[in-house]
Amino acid sequence: MLHTNENRATLLLSCPDRPGIVAAVSNFLYSNNANIVQSDQYSTDPENGMFYMRVEFDLPNFDHSFLTIKKEFEPIAQTYEIDWRLASAKRMKRMAIFVSKEDHCLLELLWKWRAGELFVDIPLVISNHSDLQQTVESYGIPFYYIPVSKETKQEAEAKQIELIQDHNIDFIVLARYMQILSSDFVQQFPKQIINIHHSFLPAFIGANPYAKAFSRGVKLIGATAHYVTDDLDEGPIIEQDVLRVNHRYTVEQLRVAGRNVERLTLSRAVAWHIEDRLIVFGNKTIVF
Amino acid sequence: MLHTNENRATLLLSCPDRPGIVAAVSNFLYSNNANIVQSDQYSTDPENGMFYMRVEFDLPNFDHSFLTIKKEFEPIAQTYEIDWRLASAKRMKRMAIFVSKEDHCLLELLWKWRAGELFVDIPLVISNHSDLQQTVESYGIPFYYIPVSKETKQEAEAKQIELIQDHNIDFIVLARYMQILSSDFVQQFPKQIINIHHSFLPAFIGANPYAKAFSRGVKLIGATAHYVTDDLDEGPIIEQDVLRVNHRYTVEQLRVAGRNVERLTLSRAVAWHIEDRLIVFGNKTIVF
Amino acid sequence: MLHTNENRATLLLSCPDRPGIVAAVSNFLYSNNANIVQSDQYSTDPENGMFYMRVEFDLPNFDHSFLTIKKEFEPIAQTYEIDWRLASAKRMKRMAIFVSKEDHCLLELLWKWRAGELFVDIPLVISNHSDLQQTVESYGIPFYYIPVSKETKQEAEAKQIELIQDHNIDFIVLARYMQILSSDFVQQFPKQIINIHHSFLPAFIGANPYAKAFSRGVKLIGATAHYVTDDLDEGPIIEQDVLRVNHRYTVEQLRVAGRNVERLTLSRAVAWHIEDRLIVFGNKTIVF
Amino acid sequence: MLHTNENRATLLLSCPDRPGIVAAVSNFLYSNNANIVQSDQYSTDPENGMFYMRVEFDLPNFDHSFLTIKKEFEPIAQTYEIDWRLASAKRMKRMAIFVSKEDHCLLELLWKWRAGELFVDIPLVISNHSDLQQTVESYGIPFYYIPVSKETKQEAEAKQIELIQDHNIDFIVLARYMQILSSDFVQQFPKQIINIHHSFLPAFIGANPYAKAFSRGVKLIGATAHYVTDDLDEGPIIEQDVLRVNHRYTVEQLRVAGRNVERLTLSRAVAWHIEDRLIVFGNKTIVF
Q1: Mean pLDDT, all residues of chain A
Q2: Is the N end or the C end of chain A the one with fewer CB atoms within 10 Å?
Q3: What pLDDT, on the 0 to 100 scale, is given for residue B1?
């Protein structure tokens, strides 16, 4: 969605469900002159379940009120055991993109970014190959080539982490990055790494999904965008989509179809993350 | 959605947007021991716009609390100029179905009703033809055959209205009812009549949409479910869907495709109406 | 597709690809006064691949010409090592439906059959439960209740086979039949049994796919129609489809969504089988 | 589809339907050593209807055989009154793109072209604005800026036509070109100009379709790719698609959704044109 309002903020929260949460939150926001424009809530079970909420609101005198809210919500949060995050729609998140050689997901993100469809900063792109350097730089974005081999992996990840920290990156998008990140790396960025998997998970887990799909004779090709966790291909699913294919498709043509569904699926997931629409609960996501 | 909670109620409201509405409503519900399980809000514009809200909540001691809420919300409503409706998820709405000769929309509704997918009572089906009498009665539902001609239209509608009132009908579904209702009839049931139009409105308005679609060579066949207003084919759209077709389809085969998209589109719209997910604003609908 | 032409026949064939096949077949049909109205071909590889073809044609003086063609095509078939099947669009196939307790797939087939959308005879329905007897009989179709337990399975299948043979059944549809057929049974009806699997195969193989989909947090629910082979859930896929779901869906609501995608997917697969649009090659299908 | 075979050609033909056409064509191809790999046929009516056919085949000794076929098919064509076109899959078509200021359709085509998904040459891009000059040139494609005003339109079109002729252009894609071409221009390139219309035709004909869609409260946003004829928005439809939207979408957000469905719809239509999959009949298209 396009953000046109300079005074907009978003509050995301989760806590054990019990009566009074919505009233407490909305009273608090009201007393701080917030005007709620959109609000979504979800309870896994009103009795002993978890409660999730996303509120989007406008704040007059934004800069001052935003800080006040950030400070003064903590006591309420403690009362209700709320896990929360407050985001200003005005402040752009900072996104790092990791790529290898394939450019379709990268280009989809860059176009949407330049078209104003993704309200985000892209301070850098990191790649284990130099192929896409010129493409990335033509968008005015710095490109860092960090080759990765079995021997240099640890060192390469150290460099990546340094770059991410130096650039104050908020989240990382793996746009067909063909390296498996180490457990150490992943744990440094919990719920901050989005990957696109080239199959309709949990079907065709692992490598060569299009060859597998071909030999199984499927009639739909899918893609899955998910948060990255330690368990490869098992992180919380954000979005999935499919494209119709038929018996005439060769493995190569399935791959082409896959590219098209991958880039659309990933860019939707990234947009939702940017707009603070996603909450992870257990191994699932809520898309508000 | 399937209703499993015996203590659930839904509050739908609309009013001029201004700060404090959500806080007022949620305080009120909290003080009446309600536990909000789902809530959706939409503002056309935080400044001078309209505000729409749907809250689904559980009530301990349901029967007593429900009446209290119904009585005591009025003062709040007046303060904020709120137009509101409170519905018990426990109470089944009463739906009348109008049909002519085609059975596909009727049967889709009856199956979903018997399968428990539509939580609704169907006290009667009314038709201007007798063809579907046996089908309807095999579901244990009374069937009323009221033929309509130019001369008898007024009289026929009078009979229909009498039946609707006698059976305490909450809303009417025109499941391919091939008669145009009079302005008088429509005005007696505002936002209470759902029609399925056999095209992707506003394309192919009026009669013979499949012949028109055929001659125009379209690649998708659509259907539109909408509330009925005085302006034929111009009422607020509830749901639309399409089905892919190609040059091999004859007019008759387009009609078959149309039947399939019509019944799915209509049944989704009816389900949302039953679950109190729909608010009409101007000539549009909000689907919460 | 609706069949309106009384004089229509379909020839399906497969053989090793080599030049001249199309010419030989079309010359043969031409010399028998056939007028080709639709023809589809597919070659896995022009050099040393397999060639598949479907021709739909009109025959003047149908009954006589049809028999002539059936007799005289054999020499050509032998020359080109063609595996072939000739079907008259005039002759209705005879379909047996197997069900258990769930009626959604059964009813979809029965409605489409009565609406003339499935050009087929349904001489009987067989079930291991008696629940759907009345429903089936209200369509004027004989219902056979054959309970199945571990001990009686062999005997039950013997009864089923006898019924199928007595009624000259051409193919069997498992419309949510909750019994696994024995290897002996399956081998008697090669490429003649269509099953609907309640997941997007190969994801969620086996039992309880909706519980699995729920715990994995998927965003799409799928269904797969396939021919039954000895390998459970591994037969050639005919059709697949999906329906969008979200975090609010309970396991039960996923099941409801599943029912809707199952019945649409199965009925498309059955229609294609009836219209002789399907050729099995290896573990895949061609849908012409 | 990706072309991997160097020896492939495509024959497209249409003629009054009568027995023997397929036999005549396939005999002719066989006697010229062609090996048919795909063939599609469609008859509007076997009696007095029109017959359409597309054959894709491999030719050993390609260059020589292709010319022979081109020369020797004419007598057969005259016998059957066949309108035909023979294309070599080896020879790239030459595509000109017309744009104005919006880049989404242009970029989709350029990315697919560079990724090898569109097997085509793009000798030039013509625009009535200079905004996209740098973008186009970064792909190594010459960009011609030809401003158009009411007074200079005739002169501008003369320049455009000269460029198209000088570059031996086979077909033109209007990728959101915001000028109406004159009748003279259109008639010079029959069935050679593809346009993307920003609505689901025939709904919302003309300007500002997203404002119209917003005020009508539609639930799906569509796009239509069509061949350009003298009748604005009335040319033969090649492809249509839709995207789901809801009440939260502003006009601007509908426009963003529209951009995404436009670029996908247009690029599919262009791919089919490149692969010689399209035949225009009357005001419709056949997509083989």
Answers
A1: 94
A2: N
A3: 45
Strand partners, C10: C56, C87
User: What's the pLDDT at B46?
Assistant: 78
The yes-or-no verdict on residue C123 having pLDDT over 80 is yes
Residue pLDDT, tens place only, B40-56: 999 988 788 999 999 99
- Measured from the Cβ of residue D76, the count of other Cβ atoms closer than 10 Å reads 16
Strand A193-197 versus strand A220-227 pairing type = antiparallel
Give residue D162's pLDDT band: very low, low, confident or very high (50, 70, 90).
very high
Are the Cβ atoms of D38 and C35 closer than 8 angstroms?
A: no
CA–CA separation, A93 and C247 (whole Å): 25
Residue D1 has pLDDT above 50, yes or no: no
C26 within 8 A of C36, measured Cβ to Cβ:
yes
CA dist C133 and C145 (Å) reads: 8
Those residues whose C-beta lies under 8 Å from the C-beta of residue B64, and which sit 6 or more positions away, are none
User: pLDDT category, D216, cuts 50, 70, 90?
Assistant: very high
Closest-CA distance of chain D to residue B149, Å: 33
Return mean pLDDT, chain B.
94
Query: Does C202 sit behind a cis peptide bond, omega within 30 degrees of 0 on the bond before it?
Result: yes
**H or E element that contains D66:** helix D62-80
State how far Cα C46 lies from the chain centre: 28
- Residue D32, chain C, CB below 8 Å: the answer is no
Å between D225 CA and nearest CA of chain A: 19
- Give the ipTM: 0.91
Interface contact flag, C33 D18, Cβ < 8 Å: no
Q: Which of A170, A156, A280, A267 is nearest to A228 (CA)?
A: A280
When pLDDT is cut at 50, 70 and 90, the band that residue D218 belongs to is: very high
Question: Which chains reach chain C with 3 or more Cβ–Cβ distances below 8 angstroms?
Answer: A, B, D
* Block residue for tokens 């018997």: B114
CA–CA gap between residue C267 and residue C274 (Å, rounded): 10
Cα A258 from Cα B150, distance rounded (Å): 58
Tell if the CB–CB gap between D38 and A256 is shorter than 8 Å.
Answer: no
**Shortest CA distance to B176 belongs to which of B113, B103, B273?**
B103
Q: What is the pLDDT of residue C4?
A: 56
Widest distance between CA atoms in chain D: 63
The rounded distance, in Å, linking the Cα atoms of B200 and B242 is 7
Residue C122: which residues within 8 A CB-CB, separation 6 or more? C94, C95, C96, C97, C109, C110, C113, C139, C141
| Residue in the block written with tokens 């424009």 | A37
Element (H, E) at D125: strand D120-127
What is residue D258's three-state secondary structure?
Answer: helix
Look at the block and give the residue holding tokens 């009549």: B193
